[in-house]
Amino acid sequence: MFPRKDRSGIWEGFVPNFQKGSLYKYHITSIDDKHFIKTDPYAFYAEKRPATASKAWSFDYQWKDQRWMRKRKKMNALNAPWNVYELHLSSWMRPDKNNWDSFNSYHQIAELLVPYVLEMGFTHVEFMPVMEYPYDASWGYQCTGYFSANSRYGLPEDLMYLIDQLHQHDIGVILDWVPSHFPKDEHGLFYFDGAHTYEYADMQKGFHPDWNSYVFNYKRGEVVSFLLSSAHFWLKVYHADGIRVDAVNSVMRLDFSRKKGEWQHNEKGTNENLEAITFLKKLNH
Predict the structure, then answer these.
(1) Residues near 76 by Cβ (< 8 Å), separated by ≥ 6?
(2) Of 21, 47, 49, 198, which is least packed with CB atoms within 10 Å of its CB?
(3) 214 CB neighbour count, 10 Å cutoff
(4) What's the CA gap between 94 and 109, in Å, rounded?
(5) How far is CA 167 from CA 3, 14, 64, 124, 236, in A?
(6) Closest CA to 234 of 147, 152, 151, 134
(7) Other residues' Cβ atoms within 10 Å of the Cβ of residue 97
């Protein structure tokens, strides 16, 4: 591996004969000679937990939802009827309610969910986070793979199949998405290269006391680009009709869940996280 000649600080390299499905991680040596083993933040797929390696992946799926895609602007309009059914893929109709490893595959969920939603009269489904996450009890809100479809239920193409089936039956799909915080798991984004790369270095801004997790540094253009790219990825590649942004209040407020003395005012003397609000405006645009 070697740095680019433009001295941008971005590193690049080429690994020949890398096959689809190959496992890989990044071994990062920090400037003070500390070593970190990290998964790829941009990986499209990952090992099923508790394993944590990234998987090399290229998508191979033929969509059949062209009729929906042509009319979805009308179907998803704010003046159109909306009746949204929210569900968590791991626990919804779980075969064994007492076993965390007992859950339906993407294909099985499609078979069960489509007739149920049609019978109940819902226009859209909202999936709680389908991105990769390590801890079952977090329900996906402690995400480590912002471009990775959850490996618990099958391949990335299997998630595409689930969304495709819903669309073919005129059911819109909203994905829950978490740009507010991320966990401290060693293989994840926290302290990525031996420094505070994705999170604020100031823990008054960079740590969520409620969720024991870390806050994205919305002041860094690279971090904003990472998050905007993730949102765009799920809308474009997975044909999602919308995203539901988690914990918006915590993103915008510097004093969210913090007592006096545990946070600092912005340069205007108020409690808004100004760069986070700028990020949310860009996201909406």
Answers:
(1) 172, 241, 242
(2) 21
(3) 22
(4) 10
(5) 44, 38, 9, 9, 14
(6) 147
(7) 9
- The answer to whether the CB of 128 falls within 8 A of the CB of 140 is yes
CA 39, chain centre distance (Å): 14
User: What confidence tens digit (pLDDT) does each residue in 179-230 have?
Assistant: 999 999 999 999 998 999 999 999 999 999 889 999 999 999 999 999 999 9
Q: At what angle do helices 156-168 and 66-75 cross, to 10 degrees?
A: 70
Pick the closest to residue 132 from 241, 50, 15, 232 (CA basis).
50
Structure tokens at 210: 């409620």
Round to the nearest angstrom and report the end-to-end CA distance of the chain: 36
Mean pLDDT over each residue of the chain, to the nearest integer: 93
Provide φ and ψ at 172, rounded to 5°. Answer: -80, 160
**Residue matched to tokens 């076993």:** 99
For residue 250, the surrounding DSSP H or E stretch is helix 248-252
Q: Is 3 helix (H, G, I), strand (E, B) or coil?
A: strand
pLDDT digits (tens, 9 = 90+) for 144-181: 999 999 999 999 999 999 999 999 999 999 999 999 99
| DSSP H or E segment with residue 84 | strand 84-87
pLDDT band at 2 (very low <50, low <70, confident <90, very high): low
